Amino acid sequence: MRMRAMMLVLFVLTLVLVVPPLASAAYKKTMVAVHYVDPQVIDPHVARAYSSLIIPIQLYDKLVDYKGATTEIEPRLATSWKMEPDGRTWSFTLRRGVKFHDGREFKADAVKFSFERLLALGQEPAGFYQALDRVEIVDDYTVRMRLKYPVGPWLQILANIKGGYIVNPNVMQHEVKKDGKGDWAQAWVTENENGTGPYKLVKWDKGQQLVLQRNPDYWDKTWDTSKALDRIVVDIIREDVGRRLALTSGKGDLLIRSMSPEEFELVAKDSKVQALAVKSLNPNYIPFNMASGPTANPKFREAIASAFDYDSLIKNILQGHGSRLRGPLPSTMPGFNPETPMVSRDLARAKKLLQESGVDVSKVELELNLLTGVRWTQEMMELLQSNLAELGIKSRLAPSTYLTMIGKWQNPATRGAMYTQYFSPELADPYSLLDRVYATGAGWNFIGYSNPEVDRLLKIGRESMDQGQRMEAYKKAQVLVANDFPAIYSQEMTGLFAFNKKLKGVTFNPTRFEAWYFREMSLEE
Amino acid sequence: MRFWSYLLQRLGFVVPILFLVTVIVFVISHVIPGDPAHVIAGMYASEAQVHTLRQEFGLDRPLWEQYWISFRRMVAGDLGTSLYTKRPVLSDLITYFPATLELTTFAMLLAIVFGIPLGVISARRTNQAADQATRFSSLAGLSMPAFWVGLLLQILLGFSWGLLPTRGRVDSLVTLDHPIRQLTGIYLFDTLVTGNWAGFKDVAGHILMPGVVLALGPLGLIVRMTRSSLLDVLREEYIKTARGAGLPENRVIYRHALRNALIPTVTVIGSMYGFLLGGSFVVESVFDWPGIGLWGVNAILNLDFPAIIGATLLYSLLRIVCNIVVDLSYYFLDPQIKLAGKYEG
Q1: Which are the contacts of A291, defined by CB distance < 8 A and separation ≥ 6?
Q2: Is ipTM over 0.90?
Q3: Same domain as B257, residue B132
Q4: For residue B316, is it within any domain?
Q5: Can you spell out the DSSP letters for A51-84?
Q6: What is d(CA B188, CA A476) in angstroms, rounded to the nearest whole number?
Q7: Do B33 and A414 touch (CB under 8 A)?
Q8: B122 and B69, same structural domain?
Q9: Which helix or strand (DSSP H or E) is residue B244 part of?
Q10: What is the span of the domain harbouring residue B98?
Q11: Cross-chain residue pair A25–B177, CB shorter than 8 Å
Q12: For residue A238, which residues of chain B lie inside 8 Å, CB to CB?
C-alpha cells in the first residue's frame, strides 16, 4: 500500500515537471535554421568545413565577395581596387565608417593583421593564399598586397568562402603564450568572435544551439533592416529525420544541409515547404589508384569507366536529382569545355577494352573505399560492384570514416583501388578543382596522377593574368585529363534544399554550398 | 577484512590499470591510418606547411617519445590540447561531462525508483497479472532499441502533440533571458538552487524524454534482477523462520529479504551506471544531448589524439570508480562480509 502510494506520488511529480517550456518574449523576426552538426570551430582563419563556416560568414566580412547568386565580384570592406601590370601588386581602398562588434574602427591595420594571422596559423583557409608575401599599410584606408608571383584568380580567392576574413586586432588581448610561442588568440577565436559582420554571436550552447543577433551598427546602409532577421537560432539536429520533422512541424524554417533524395521527396509534398533543387558546382566522382595495382593500366580504367551504369545512378539512386558529369569540371563552371569526351556505359566496349588491357581478372580483387553513413554513396558503390561483376572483376567494399579514408589514400602503400570523392569548389574558377587534384604532387592528388602537359597548362591557369589565356589553358587541360581516365566521372551534384515557404531571400550561391547568408533573408508573417 | 584495507587494496589497482589503458589507446589511435596534420593543413597546403603543423603537434617524433611527453603531462594534470579546437582537453571534458552525468544519473534514478518497487511487486504476485505485465514490459524495455523508442517519442510527444522539446538540454532563447548560473554543471540542481524557475522548467522538460529512453534498458534489467533475486531469498530458511515468528509480511520483505536480494541488483546498477557514464552515444545522438558520448565520437572521427586519450581515460576512471563503490557497498549490504573480516582480523 505504501509502495503504491509512493509510486503514485512519484508519477504525479513527474507529470508536474512536464510543462512545455514557455516561449520567451517573442522576437518579431526570429528565424530557426536547422543545422546537422556543431560547428566546433568558428575561427574564420581556421575553420575548414562548410558546416563550421556557416557561422563565421555571418559574423565577419571580407574585402570583396561574390554577389548574391552570381560569381560577380562586389565590394564589401574594400570599395575599389587596382592591380599593377606585373600582376604582383594589388591596391585596395577601404570602406570608411565601419566598426567592429566591440566598437573599434575598421582601418588598414586590421587588414594587415588579418592576413598575417591567416598565414601564421597556416591552416586550410590559408591554402589559397600561399602567393601572398605581405600586406602593406599605405594609409588608414589604403592597403597594398604584394604577391610572390602573379595569380590569375586573385580577386576570386579574396572573395571565396575560405580565408579572407577581417578579424579585429583586439582579439590579441586573448592571446595565450605557451613555451614562448603565441597562439594568435586561436583558442579564443575558436569559440568567440570579433568581426564587422551583419550578425553577432550572443549564445552558443555547445552541440545544441547558437543564437545570432543582428548588428544594429552594420555598415551596409542598403540593407533593409525593417525586413531583416533580427535573430537567428541555429538548432543542431544530428538525425536526418529529426531535421525534416523540425521543418514540417514548423519548429524550423531552413534546413541548412542538402538532403538525401528520399528525404527531399518527402518534404517536397508539404504545402508549407519550399523545395529547391539547384545545379551546383560540385562534381562527384570515383578516382582510380593510378600508381599501383591493376588500375594503373589505362585500358583497364577505361574498361571500368565504360561499364559503370551512369544513368541508373542518376535515375534510381539519386531519383533524378543529378546530371551527367563530363570530365573533371561540372558544366556550371566557367571554363568548362563542352567538347570534353564523356564516357557512357557500353558493356560490349568495356569487355573489349578489358581484353585489350591484358589484365588477368582472376587474380584481381579491387578494394573500394567509401564513407560510412551516406546512403546514396553506399548504393553507388554497390552499383559499381555489380557493374564490375559484369566484367568478371571481383571487388569488396571498405567503408570508413572520412579521415581514415583520406589517411589510407595519402599513403601509397595503403591505398585501395578506388574511392569516392566529392568537391565543393570555393571558387567559380577551374583553379579550385583542377590544381589540387591533378597537378603532379599536389596536396589532394592521392591517385598519383601526373601529366607534364597538364602541369604546364595548370601553371598558365594559375599565373597568367590574361583571363582568356587562362580559360584556354583550362579547356585544353580538362580534355587531356579526361583522356587519361583517372576516374569514373559519375555525376554533377544537385543541391536539394528545403525551407519554410514564408522565408524569402534564400539565395543559393554555388561557391557557398550549404553556407547561406542570413542577411539576405526575411521571414514573412 | 577491515574496511580501509579493503579500500586500499581496491585503489591500488587504479593507477596500473589507467596506465595500461593509456598505452593501449595511444597505440591504437596512432596505428589507424590518417594524419590529422595533413587534414588540418588542408587541400592546398604545401609539404612545408604540413611539416610545420606536424612539428607543432609533435607528430614527427618517434611514437615512444610522443607517448612519454603526453604521459608526463597527464601525470601533471594536463590532458593536452585538442588538435582541432585548440581548447585544453580537460576543459572540454568539464564542459561536456556534466551533461552526461546529469542525464545518466536522472535515468538511473528513474530506473531504480521505478524498477525496484516493480521488481518487488512482481516477486510478491508471482505469475499473477501484475507480474506478467511487469515482466513483459521489462523485457520490452530491454529489447527495444533506444534509437527507435527515442525517435518514436520525439515524433509523438514532440512533433505531433508539441508536449515536450525534442532535442538538446536547454532552449537557448529561454536561457538568454534566464541565464543558468553554472554552479555544478548539473542544470536541474543549478536552476533549483538559484531559484531560476523558468530555467528549471526548461531543463526538466528537456531531460524527460532522453532520460526515459535511457532508463528503459536499466529499468528492465533492474526489475528482472530484483524479482529473481528476491524470489531466491524468499525461499531461504530464515525467511520461513521470520514468517513463522509472526512478523508482518511487509517487514519480512523490506527489512529482511530485500537487503540481501539487492546485492546482485546493486552490482548491476553500479556496473550499468559506470557504463552509461561513458556517454550513451545513441541517446545523445538522437536527442542532440551535448554529452561526452557525442564529444568522444567526434574526437575519434577527427583523429584528435589528445581528445581520444582524454576521453578514454575518463571512461576508464569512471568504470573503475563505480566498480569500487559497488564493491564497498557490499560492506553495508552484506553483513557476512563485515563478519568475516572481524573474524579474521
Answers
A1: A412, A415, A447, A448
A2: no
A3: yes
A4: no
A5: HHHTTHHHH--BSEEE-TTS--EEESSEEEEEE-
A6: 65
A7: yes
A8: no
A9: helix B237-244
A10: 90-292
A11: yes
A12: 285-286, 288, 294
